[in-house]
Specification:
Number of strands of chain A: 0
Number of helices of chain A: 2
Strand order of the largest sheet of chain B: 1-2-3-4-5-6
Number of strands of chain B: 9
Number of helices of chain B: 16
Order of helices and strands of chain A: HH
Largest sheet of chain A: none
Largest interface: A-B, 30 and 52 residues
Oligomer: heterodimer
Strand content of chain A: under 5%
Structural class of chain B: alpha/beta
């Protein structure tokens, strides 16, 4: 079966390639992804 | 929480219900910053996460004064940012504009449509749903950086289909973070059987498939699964890497300089290493951490046959150590295990044969 098209995957690949081109470290890549998503990442805040 | 978060000074400001800012003042002693900077020159950012209770009960004026104090008391070279986790009921146009002006990142709790969001009610038991949705729209209009946090419970998966869930949040139009409930804190007393984890994993898997087919908003958690299982990236969350205990120079700091395994353990003496103002070098804490690590026995039962462990995406530590301390195991790890297995199989069949 052929590979399906997915915007969600394409977005992540593009993002990953972009930050790799910038020569960022792995930590920085993730940091930027998180900042871009702009979520409050403290998942506990909602529970306590 | 990410590893990057742990590389910052993390100040928890849960207790903000007093009518003055003494608690905030306590978080800003210059000696503390000087000591942290001495040992960790990398720590050049300070992130305030305001939560409660309901942090907006303190009022907009409280946060205006907090911003003022931050700009007066925190050394200029330290970048300061503010996040707030709210139930959304007290947001109005003025508050939304204030958040925008001061670059607050806002998380609003909303679990889904009204019939799913039934636990979020006012004191008089009236549903807060309509108000919260209206106030999320205010955040959108004011272009505040924000996200919605939906907590998935066993009840959620019984009352809504994945298609309805995804459709609701897609129409709402804000980015989403999906939390799986823990049977502690406000979740205390809720059932947390293995079958619950399986049901939740199945629900999230169906949502994930919809996300792959038709992404309309960003769901951070699902992006993490794509990173891990499609792009072979390690998950950045400490829960999966066990970095709080394996990395010798990673700590959580309380406002008074007390040093813990991570900020989740603040207040638990077993995981307190000492005070940063009373040592010559952080190596003293690293030694204590190594000792703790040597004697620590994570519950790795669930790591067996887990896709994440197999692909070395996680650190095979049985999940969050804090959760293991409280419950003996990490329920989210069970969900992750089931979900990652489903996704890996699905990927093989449909996306990367």
């Amino acid at each position: 079966m052929g590979a399906k098209e997915s915007k969600a995957i394409r977005d992540r690949v593009e993002n990953y390639n972009k930050v790799r081109e910038l020569g960022l470290t792995k930590d920085e890549v993730y940091y930027n992804l998180l900042r871009k998503n702009a979520h409050a990442e403290d998942e506990y805040a909602d529970k306590y | 929480m990410t590893e990057e978060t742990l590389n910052k000074i993390f100040v928890s400001t849960a207790d903000i219900f007093s009518d003055n800012l003494n608690n905030l003042k306590d978080t800003l002693p210059s000696d503390y910053f000087n000591n942290v900077k001495k040992y960790h020159p990398r720590y050049l950012s300070l992130e305030y996460t305001w939560h409660g209770g309901e942090p907006l009960l303190a009022g907009q004026e409280f946060y205006a004064r907090a911003i003022e104090m931050q700009s007066c008391l925190i050394p200029k070279e330290i970048h300061t940012s503010n996040k707030i986790q709210t139930n959304g009921t007290l947001i109005n146009k003025s508050v939304a504009n204030f958040f925008k002006k001061n670059n607050f990142v806002v998380g609003v709790s909303l679990d889904g449509p009204e019939y799913v969001n039934k636990n979020r009610v006012y004191r008089n038991k009236k549903s807060s749903f309509a108000d919260v949705v209206a106030n999320i729209k205010l955040l959108q209009k004011a272009e505040v950086t924000h996200g919605v946090l939906a907590t998935i419970t066993p009840d959620t998966v019984k009352n809504i289909t994945p298609a309805e869930f995804m459709s609701f949040f897609g129409e709402l139009g804000s980015n989403l973070q999906v939390n799986v409930f823990y049977p502690v804190g406000r979740g205390l007393g809720l059932s947390c059987k293995k079958s619950d984890s399986q049901e939740i994993a199945k629900f999230l898997f169906d949502c994930f498939k919809i996300y792959l087919e038709n992404k309309t908003i960003t769901i951070k958690d699902f992006d993490s699964y794509i990173d891990a299982l499609f792009l072979n990236q390690k998950l950045p969350y400490c829960r999966y890497t066990g970095s709080c205990i394996t990395k010798e120079n990673m700590f959580g700091f309380d406002y008074n300089g007390d040093v813990y395994l991570c900020n989740r353990f603040i207040g638990l003496d077993k995981y307190k290493f000492g005070n940063i103002n009373e040592v010559q070098s952080l190596n003293e804490f690293s030694d204590k951490k190594q000792k703790l690590y040597k004697n620590y026995k994570p519950n790795k039962k669930n790591c067996i046959s887990c896709q994440m462990a197999k692909n070395e995406i996680c650190g095979q530590m049985g999940g969050c150590i804090f959760a293991q301390e409280l419950l003996g195991y990490d329920p989210l790890c069970l969900v992750t295990k089931q979900l990652s297995q489903n996704i890996a199989q699905y990927k093989k069949e449909y996306y990367m044969p």
